[in-house]
Amino acid sequence: MAEARLKRIDRSQSYWGAVEIESLIAPDHRARGIWELVSTLPVEEFLSDNKSVAGRAGAERTDPRLLIAVWVYGLTLGIGSARELERQLEREPGLRWLCGDEGVNHHTLSDFRVAHGAALDGLFSRVLAALTKIQAQAGASSLRREPTLRERLRQAEQVVAELTREAQEEGARSKRQAARERAACEQAARLRQALEELEAIRKSRQEPEQARASASEPEARVMKNGQGGFAPSYNAQTMVDAAHKIVVNVELTQQAGDQGQLEAALERLPPRCGDGTLQLLVDGGYIEERGIAAAAERGVELIGPVLEREVQRSRNQRQSLAQAGIAEEFGGAAFRVVEDGVALECPAGQRLRRISHTPRYDQYRAGAGACGACAMRPRCCPRSAARSVKIARPSPVVEAFHQRMREPAAQAVYGLRGAVAEFPHAWWKEKFGLRKFHVRGLAKARLELKWAALAYNIQQWFRLIWKPRLATA
After folding, report:
1. Single pTM value for the model
2. CA atoms 335, 340, 343, 347: torsion sign
């Protein structure tokens, strides 16, 4: 049988050809929707440092609207790396259409993402007008205690000194030498910061000798991750509109738990939602007496699980007693209220007079010399000359909250919390691939989270407004 003549495929060849940019994507492609919204937004705040002025010499500056649209669309594709985004600008149809088939280098993209924090907040607000644990960049293996951090710092400073000496001897530095020296200096700076952060971590721990800080991500804190392990992380605090699942506000903290975050959330609420009565759904981690009182003061109807006050007080008391070196059997319950609340009687029969009377608590203290010769002092007040006791008072605001949460209507509303609150977080992780930050440091990670929230909201605008408008047209 004669050999067949087959046309050879030559993929090494290059050729010139015309590209009709408008035909790269369909009329209802989301890149068009993103550009339609972004192109109408004012971006003067992003140009506050502009040096490229009409009528003067110099290169033109990339339009901030384009950079915003590219990052937002890139995030919808699950692209969080500036270098990968630069590569995709050459091949992905939506990105090619946005840029007019002209590339943008990764330095421009990266610098734009971590700058303009105030401008990004303004942009977030304007998108709202048109319409609550992500792992840090560092890994768990970067966590180190003080001796290791100090040794790593000593080694890094030695490398910096050697590289500097080599450069002085040679008279001139190559790009490679400069890069090595810069990397060594950055590593030494991170290790110094890690030692500073370690001190802050120690102050918040009952076992300060066990405190660890990340050598590569000092501002991150050890938190439990979704796989049951622990890793350097930040805690994302998110407010979500229940009706349309739109992110109203987002913040990033170093605190592993949500205790105390409700008051901070209420402070951020007015600029987004304005004044007036509204409902705020929270989970059990946010429920504490101070937060309930703060919500009531602002006229916010708080919806959440009933505060297990006795359990919480018992836990808080155990922690306070342990820090003071007091045995648990000498907690507040061991002291008897006498004289209509004016005084307490301790287990040894001594009198503690009331020294403070507030709507939230009464505080009592033993007289001078009452505890000095007491046989119970090593277990009752080992670190002070006289024992003091604080007795909490019932809060009418908390009682009103409990009464409301016993009603079936409030319970039904609370049942919506999980679906509302977790939806954006699931979206960021599953659709945007934001399971780990691409930048280091709390400030930069906070900006990356805000970009993700902005991209998410624009996609909701796309779903709720742009698509229905196209269908009607």
Report:
1. 0.65
2. negative
